[in-house]
Design a protein that fits this description.
Blueprint lengths: L5 E6 L1 H13 L4 E6 L2 H4 L11 E3 L10 H10 L1 H8 L7 E7 L4 H16 L4 E8 L6 H16 L6 E6 L6 H16 L12 H8 L3 E7 L7 H11 L9 E10 L5 H5 L3 E11 L4 E7 L4 H18 L27 H11 L3
Helix pairs in contact: 1-7, 3-5, 4-5, 5-6, 6-11
């Protein structure tokens, strides 16, 4: 893919960290940071308020309120559309968001609709970050609503990659892995006498309609299948239910795993591209079915929290007897009915 024709857009704080990391990896990417809070932008090295940052006017965060975020972006639709038209040669827009939050989660649907009108010839990819199963009820609820928003406009989207926050211990580890994997995927090109992948091939793989997956194979394992199985297990991306795909890109170290043995492990319906390099073993699947298991787990976690909340008996007041040796019964106060209460007021307050 041609980096100068890619526009990486972050919606919200969590997504901003990933776009910032990718811009640090390769300055040829174009980056755009959209947020409702200037405070979220300040730590980012590659965010320039005068050049590639858009803060919704008069706002100071969304408070994880998706409806508030949706209203913000709708109020700023024209300005954002004008901003996107400043990137007329864009071939691929990659939209990043966390699904559990407010600003990105609530605005992604509207942003993609704006983007397709502003740059109708550009492909739109999505990288959406799911929460871990340790998150709270609001995170799960926002995620499911965001999932439905994304799926409702799937006709406007090409490639979707979902990130699984359960696969590492910290957000920083997740972000670093996503940044490295995406950069390798976008740079899967290679020239070799036994096979080459050019920018057009990479574009085709990385923007295929459907869910995408990036696998990094470790060196030194006994065979290609073992390497792929371990890569699947360690991947931070949500895995598809089946590993059928439209396009497969394989770029392996010279004299390492046999790329043809790797390609046999996947059902490929359109084209397989193979090349070699000196540093990394990368396999990219484009055009897989949308994965469902992870979102089902989040729905189950939400249902469980709701069930426990319904069964909760919350006590707000408890009277404590200071005299623990006092066996006398505590005198109970007779509760007045409404008529007795009215009479009480009438007897004491005659105006």
């Amino acid at each position: 893919m041609e980096k100068g024709k890619m526009l990486l857009v972050s919606l919200g704080q969590g997504a901003g960290n990933i776009v910032d990391g990718l811009l640090s990896k390769n300055s040829r990417y174009n980056g755009l940071f959209l947020n409702s809070s200037l405070f979220d932008i300040k730590p980012l090295k590659n965010a320039n308020i005068a050049r590639n940052v858009y803060i919704y006017p008069g706002t100071d965060g969304s408070g994880r309120d998706r409806n508030k975020a949706r209203d913000m972006i709708k109020d700023n639709a024209n300005s954002i559309g004008i901003l996107l038209r400043k990137y007329p040669i864009t071939e691929t827009i990659v939209v990043f968001t966390t699904m559990a939050g407010g600003t990105g989660s609530g605005s992604i649907k509207t942003f993609i609709q704006i983007a397709k009108k502003a740059l109708p010839n550009a492909k739109v990819n999505v990288v959406a970050i799911l929460p871990s199963l340790k998150e709270d009820e609001l995170a799960f609820k926002n995620t499911i609503e965001c999932w439905n928003d994304v799926n409702s406009i799937m006709n406007l989207i090409n490639d979707v990659k979902f990130v699984d926050n359960n696969k590492r211990n910290t957000y920083k580890e997740i972000n670093n892995e996503v940044i490295e994997s995406l950069d390798l995927s976008y740079n899967i090109t290679g020239i070799h006498v036994d096979g080459s992948i050019d920018n057009k091939d990479s574009f085709r793989i990385n923007t295929a309609d459907g869910s995408g997956l990036i696998l990094k194979l470790y060196d030194g394992l006994k065979d290609a299948k073992t390497a792929v199985d371990l890569a699947i297990k360690n991947s931070v991306f949500v895995q598809p239910d089946v590993y059928d795909c439209d396009y497969l890109g394989v770029n392996l170290k010279i004299d390492g795993y046999d790329p043809y043995e790797v390609s046999k492990l996947f059902e490929v319906y359109k084209s397989t591209y193979i090349t070699y390099n000196d540093k990394n073993n990368i396999v990219v699947l484009g055009g897989c079915e949308t994965p469902t298991e992870s979102i089902k787990l989040i729905k189950m976690a939400l249902d469980d929290k709701n069930q426990r909340k319904l069964s909760r008996n919350k006590k707000r007041s408890i009277m404590i007897d200071l005299d623990s040796d006092n066996d006398e019964e505590i005198e109970e106060l007779d509760i007045l009915n409404d008529n007795e209460l009215n009479n009480l007021f009438e007897d004491n307050y005659n105006f």
